[in-house]
Please model this.
Amino acid sequence: MTYRNPPTTPRKSATFDDYTLSEIRRAAATGIYDIRGAGAKRKLPHFDDLLFLGASISRYPLEGYRERCDTSVVLGSRHAKKPIELKIPITVAGMSFGSLSGPAKEALGRGATLSGTSTTTGDGGMTEEERGHSKQLVYQYLPSRYGMNLRDLRRADAIEIVIGQGAKPGGGGMLLGQKISDRVAEMRTLPKGIDQRSASRHPDWTGPDDLEIKILELREITDWEKPIYVKVGGARPYYDTALAVKAGADVVVVDGMQGGTAATQEVFIENVGQPTLACIRPAVQALQDLGMHRKVQLIISGGIRNGADVAKALALGVDAVSIGTAALVALGDNDPRWEAEYNELGTTAGAYDDWHEGRDPAGITTQDPELMKRVDPIAAGRRLANYLKVMTLEAQTIARACGKNSLHNLEPEDLVALTIEAAAMAGVPLAGTNWIPGKNGF
Amino acid sequence: MPASKLSKAAASDHASRVFDLDQSSLRELNQALHNLTPGSNETAWEVLNPKGNHSVAVGVDQPVSIDVRGSVGYYCGGMNSGSTITVHGSAGPGVGENMMSGSITIKGDASQYAGATGKGGLLVIEGNASSRCGISMKGIDIVVHGNIGHMSAFMAQSGNLVVLGDAGDALGDSIYEARLFVRGKVESLGADCIAKEMRPEHLELLKGLLDRAGVTGVKPAEFKRYGSARTLYNFNIDNADAY
Model:
């Protein structure tokens, strides 16, 4: 009689999971790292790891739908003669024309304007679609300086000096040749069809002291009217915020590692920078240490999805949030209606991120004239406005339950954390305890 | 020295404005320049005592002439659009950054990143320029009578850089379509930058640039032309060693 040991169930490695194995095979076959858009997809400590403490006896709530909860915010009141006044503390982040289609940019402008908030240009310069439909438009001053010109600088409502992005702090960009239409080529002063590199650093300054002088130059050029934002990738938020303030920024924008990008290396997106949640408290602390909290406004971005995220970010001390990926989804990006076409591209709705290839079935991250017709700027703008409205209502609902008549009155005391990691990053107690890990410093 | 003795502007037929930065602020100067409207009679400006001030005459967008009597700090003439600026001294970093059109002449030397990201117009440096001259240039023409430092014309997209003297290390690294003309020695060329044949159209182009920059006694044939080998225009893993 032959005895056979019972077989064990095959077990795949947690380290070499299916995705990792596929990446190794892909790298071995192609000899090139994967490039993609969007932000970090790995699971990170995030706003989901925080909970609000609604009011009971020790706090007194406000009546939902009856008592006012203010949502407005003023950005850039430190130096600018004409600060930006937003009706809601949610702005639309910079996304470039070139990466996005013209109709998509127009839709962002329409949606933001309907909602009383601002949009932001991107690496490709300012388009008429966006300027014409954005009541308030932030003009990004990027290392590439593609399309940068005096006229557009003065047509902007604010200027955002982009030093880094959350998806790739320290990294430059690459718009592959296949997305370079005649119009994109002209705006960027480069021949059609060649890869267009966006530098990782500003060519005409080399450090924080130069930044201060650069800000002075931009203020002089625009007669001190427009707020100057400084945007950094969330890597060293305490020091970068402090240096931006020292250099004279009116507004500091910190973009956490869930922040999206048009295209960069997958390994970069997933392995460089800090989670958005981890960036907020150090940035707020820097402002507080300098006596500039609420005087220099702080915008946080990177993976904001709903009103709870907004309320949590505000409670931790930011003045406004910015959305990019979520705005694209609101317009129709990754919509299941295009599932068959996503399948043809080897992916599925919800996972499509090869934005740099210019074949976006939703017509949003493309320069293909046929595909971009799929974006109706009016309808898509309305969808974005609806989404922004919902986020605002959600945040207000939570704030009222915490007894606040303004979203900006939310505070860390309103929060607890579900995990030790989130408690440490957010500087709030672990739920059910009074323990704030790492309270004594960053 | 009294302003009247220095001033070409004051002697001209046009209405002139003299700004003494010992008496007025930089803000007042720039605001006055920005307040100019098309057809303004105030076509000649003179700036006294700049004393290394940053951002002198930035963002001017009218066709006026501005004579700056002395040396300036960072970003003089930044984003200039149509004006003719002459600095009778030396310029700090970033002179003429992102210039759109018009011209800027530096009678002395220029520091780092002269003409950075410039879209158009002419920048003339009669002395030497430091490192990163013409970095990321996008259509500007730059003529340097002396030498330029390292990493000049890095990622230069279009326009022309003419150097009568020598160039430092890594000239034209990652260059796109800009043309570089160097009369002297080049310390080293950057990635994808190569020496190129000087054809008749280039000699003609160079002659025009030298004329516009007021260079005399120098022949276009004395220069070598450098530009992109275009091997890195589309990413290819086989070129990874070049990055």
Observations:
- Residues 377-401 of chain A form the longest helix (25 residues).
- Chain A touches chain B through 37 residues (CB under 8 Å).
